[in-house]
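Narrative of activities, Objective 1.

The group set out to show that a structural description can be obtained from nothing but a protein's sequence at a throughput compatible with the screening campaign. Below is one input-output pair from the validation batch, recorded exactly as produced.
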Amino acid sequence: MHTAETVTLARLPSGVPVQTTVHVYEPADGTDGPTLYVQAAQHGREINGTEVLRRLHGRLDRADLTGRVVAVPVADPLTFDRVSYVTPEAIDSVNSNMNRVWPGDPEGTLHERMAATLWEFASDADAIVDLHTGSPDMLTHTVYRQNDDASRDLAEAFGVDLLLAEAAGEDAEEEWTKRNFDGKLRVAATEAGIPSITPELAHNKQLVEAAIVAGVEGLLNVCRSLGILSGAVESWDGQTYRNHLGRVSADTSGLFVVREDVELGREVRPGDHLGWVYDPTRYTVLQEVEAERAGVVYSIAREATVTAGKTLVGVALPLDRDENELATDDVFGEMDDELDI
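Output recorded for this entry:
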């Protein structure tokens, strides 16, 4: 049985309501079972998850369910309408990023109120999937909280090859607090004892078929793993890496030229040359971009105009199976260092 409810998340200064639709799929006979909460487009330019939920609707609407799925295809209509990652300052000058304010505050800023409204649905779930998409050049992967076994199981059930374990709270770096990462939906959910994952389905602003198919199959697998749908889930046979630590950032502003032989999935080691940041007016090289740690390239900045601090290349660091230690195996890659621009 499927129902769809229009929910008011907040109100704009003019009194115009900010609304979205919450879909609920549940057994027609009222059988009680586990609940999965899934949402998409918390960042409005990340639209693959919205298409995933449209296609999932066709599958769940005909399925024999033994549990509930609560689905929100557009979690943040404000950013969706603007095809943006965050809202303009005029809309929420304090919390422009909705994924930094969970579980929200019903008396807080606009985004805090929106999150609090959706948290009423999410907090009743047995598991949460928050669908996102990455940059145009990024491996599809799933992020979960490091050392949280239930979330790890959920990530494995989703089924993509690359998992990124993310430290949180006291286990995280200082940057964690500076960037308000404790307000992510995934983090708030695990703090509340609800297993939660964030699949990053590659490519924002574009509907990419491979990413969408991975998302649909991933959600069906999660439903099977929870017992909402019948069927077995194949054993996961991918690799786990540590999120964030291996990012290579711009030391200065300029134009970034990535080496032609640097591509997604390539293994790198400390000192491997990845590209250059140069002065566009004087042509002088400002930074020789090099990997700082061993790992695998999972994202590459393709927007060449960069400012200091921007992530140029994301390098995921291998983790041992117990997730407490980074793997120390050397990885390969001799690269030619000539600049050709």
